Amino acid sequence: MPMRRAFHLFASHLFAGHLFMGPVNAMLGTLWAIMRRRDGNVALLFGLAAVPVIVAAGIAMDVTRIYMVKTRLGAALDAAALDVGSQSNQTSSALTTALNNYFYNNYCRSVAGGTTVTSCNSTVAGETVTSLGVAPNSPDPITGATVTFQATAQLNTIFMPILSVLPGFSSYQVNPVNVTVTSQITKFPGMEVAVVLDNTGSMLCNGAATGPLYSPCGSVDSTNPPSSGGNCANIATSTNPSRICTLIKAAQDFVQTLQIAAPGPKSLYMSIVPYVTTVNVGQAFNCTTNSTNCTNITQDSCSGDFTDDRGNVIYDGTASPAATSSATDKQTSLKGTLGAKTTTITSVSPNTSGLLTGMTLSGNSNIPSGAYITAVNSTTQITISTKTTNSSTLTSQSFKVNEGGASTTSGSTTVTFTSNPSSTLAAGMVVTGNGIPAYDAIQTVNSTTSITLCKAATATASYQNFSFYNPVNYDAAYNNAAPAMTSSGAVTAGWGGCVVEPTSSDENTGVSGVIPYGSSGADPDTKAPIAGMQWYPLWWLSSSDPNSFSGNVNSWSSQTSGSIKYQSYAGEAQGSVGSYDSLPGPNQGCPAPMLSLQDITDQSSGGGLAQVNQAINNMWPRDADGTQVHIGMAWGWRTLDPNGPFTANNGHPLTYSTATNTGWKKIVVLMTDGTEEWVTGGEYTGLGPITDGKINTTNYNNAPANLATRLATLCTNMNNAGIIVYTIGLGYDGQNNSQLQNCASNPNYYYKATPATIDTAFQSIAASIIHLRLSQ
């Protein structure tokens, strides 16, 4: 074999590491050139030069091997440290096992995932891991906020021992070489996380819905029909479950992942915010069922009744009156002579004693309805307001004088009754009748024959027919059995808990009775909440209600059985969305109740973790009104803001300064399968009817763009406030919603998902949240 080829073959085996082959080849080329020369001293010079060059090249190879060990050792320790740090609510032995598993499964390429190992042979031959654990003087990983982990490996070098035979190097210990790496983690002391979830009607669609505007919605899932687990019970065996079912599972898995990774007790607070165009705050506002006792909801200052966004007391005009005061409640039977087409009645028998002007007459077909006494002429004669209809004189005609009903005086708030109303009256009842202003209500009940109104009467009248209606109260039964919602709860005409946003700076103030929220509260749906904010109850007036707004498409009546409909898995097949306007009722489009911040490290029965999982499980799509993503997002922020409307839970939400100073994080996870949408046709949304102009337009065509602008503004304000925002776009519309990517705090915090991958998206977000930052 030629000498040059042999020399290079030897060198190629000697210097197996490619990192240093360039410089080594250059040195070998120089040596070969010297060796080929035939000068007198070349052989001697070559021999002298070759020794240090070969030793240096060998040492370079040893250094390369040391560097490779250190790099892989550090990477494996980083991964193990991050995982162990995120599981610091485990026992010490469990943490030790996790540290070993994650370290060796990363360091030892040939070890199967999940295998418990304590040593291994890596691709760099000759090294052995001699220690692994928490670094000396480091805090315990269970309690410490900053923890340092350390790993050491020993490596026997090949060429470095040659140094020990050289003069001056005999005292150096060159084998084995200890390679030590450290990884330091800084743990979050805690997090406040708001999970904002789309509950619009399209969430009934399944994975087959691949087009815009969820069209087609997808085929009905024959393995998961409504009658046998349409509430997602069969999701594990379903071939193509609806989006809502995959969302419920993904959200609950997300909760579990974060709960396991919580740094310790009371370190993770979470809120759940289902939304459509509105959010259900009834339970979160501590509302008392069958009453108007509720925080942060607009109420009439006099009666205490709920008021709508026009300042009007809310009551059901389709209902039967709760009580009446009728002129016929007290009657006197008389006889008399009715002249032909005259206003005079003579020969009144037995007499006119006790009769007064204003009393109405009834009981005779010849006396027109509504006729009343205008004068008592004598003990046997009266004059009435309308002529009789008979064409000839009629004698001994029976008739009745109505002496009951209510009496008012113009400018006075006092109403008196000459007979008791049909049922007991109560403060807050809405009053209708002649001379009574619209939306007037009882302030106080003075006695069985006297009440005081909130607004003064506009006419003086006696013996009037009045009707009294119960105000609309909060009815928790609407949500008692979500998502199934038993008919007894779902068909309530009470208020189910959803709200309309406060008046904005863009509102059309030409709408009669609009209540301005004030300049400090301009556009509250895009900004941080203000202490003391109030919201209007979202309660759809029936289109048959005399007080209904123009174009209202919600047709129902509390007196007509079956006219109030409800939405539940019991009547809906997954992969099939009903028409949004075929489910009328005052709470149409109102989702399951939201939940304010709860401590999900509390795993007790009825504790925070159980409440969060139940809030997620209660979700079901609500067909109505379109999609208003920014409304859900605003409520997510409100659960994290110390000025928000919710009762504090162990001091949470924290102030922004406290969160910054202590290292706590405020996080919102937003998910939607659509884009901003306002359905045309008289819809009542979380921003009221479009005619109110809360988004600076009364034109349906302009609504989506204006809603999108508000979402962009809201996201900017949230990010500027230090909120960390993650977003998920589900399905075609969600994946193509560019606003979601723009809303996320980081482009990497935006995830596209299908029903089949939404669990993965949520787990990726969970991993990002708990992936603790390596500080060293």
Structure description:
- A hairpin with a 7-residue loop joins strand 15 (about 430) and strand 16.
- The protein has 13 helices and 29 strands.
- Helix content is about 25%, strand content about 20%.
- The strands form seven sheets. An eight-stranded antiparallel sheet has the order 6-19-15-16-17-14-13-18, with no helix packed on it.
- The chain folds into four domains: about 5-185, no CATH class; about 190-290 and about 480-770, von Willebrand factor, type A domain (Rossmann fold); about 330-405, Beta Barrel (Elongation Factor Tu (Ef-tu), domain 3), CATH 2.40.30; about 405-470, no CATH class.
- The protein has about 775 residues and is of the alpha+beta class.
List the helices and strands and how they pair.
Layout: H1 3-14, H2 21-36, H3 42-86, H4 92-107, E1 127-134, E2 146-155, E3 177-186, E4 191-198, H5 243-261, E5 268-275, E6 323-325, E7 331-338, E8 344-349, E9 360-362, E10 373-376, E11 382-384, E12 394-402, E13 406-408, E14 414-417, E15 430-432, E16 440-447, E17 450-453, E18 461-464, E19 466-469, H6 487-490, E20 499-500, E21 536-537, E22 595-599, H7 608-617, E23 626-627, H8 629-640, H9 656-662, E24 665-672, E25 677-678, E26 684-685, E27 688-689, H10 703-720, E28 724-730, H11 731-735, H12 738-743, E29 750-753, H13 758-770
Parallel strand pairs: 4-5, 4-24, 24-28, 28-29
Antiparallel strand pairs: 1-2, 2-3, 5-22, 6-19, 7-8, 7-12, 8-11, 9-12, 10-11, 13-14, 13-18, 14-17, 15-16, 15-19, 16-17, 20-21, 23-25, 26-27
